[in-house]
């Protein structure tokens, strides 16, 4: 079934992306706390350093830079795409033209 794309749909989608970003950031913060606690004074040495290095060099870029950063991340790209759709497709449509197209030959 076809649906009509509206500004409200774009706003709702962007709100969902924002909620996702907030949730991902909260989970990242929790994970960071777990890693910090895990590698605290009672757990030292190569294994502890390995956890910290993995978290810093692999997990952080994947979870922050690539996923939730305001610029250049996946979610930033989705938001940009939604804004472009709204600006180029929805904001440029003349509502009067739509009404005329619904009743061709009546104007």
Q: Estimate the mean pLDDT confidence.
A: 87
**What series of H and E elements makes up the topology?**
HHHH
Task: Give the count of helical stretches.
Answer: 4
How many DSSP E strands?
Answer: 0
Helix-residue proportion: over 70%
| Strand fraction | under 5%
Helix/strand-derived category reads mainly alpha
Gap from first CA to last CA: 30 Å
Which stretches are low in confidence, meaning pLDDT under 50 for 5 or more residues running?
none
Tags for this model:
107 residues; mainly alpha; 4 helices; rod-shaped
Characterization of the model:
The protein is an all-alpha fold. It has 4 helices and no strands. The mean pLDDT is 87. Helices cover 72% and strands 0% of the residues. It has helices at residues 7-38, 46-65, 74-90, 95-102.
Task: Chart the SSEs and their pairings.
Blueprint: H1 7-38, H2 46-65, H3 74-90, H4 95-102
Helix pairs in contact: 1-2, 1-3
How do you describe this structure in short?
The chain is mainly α and 107 residues long.
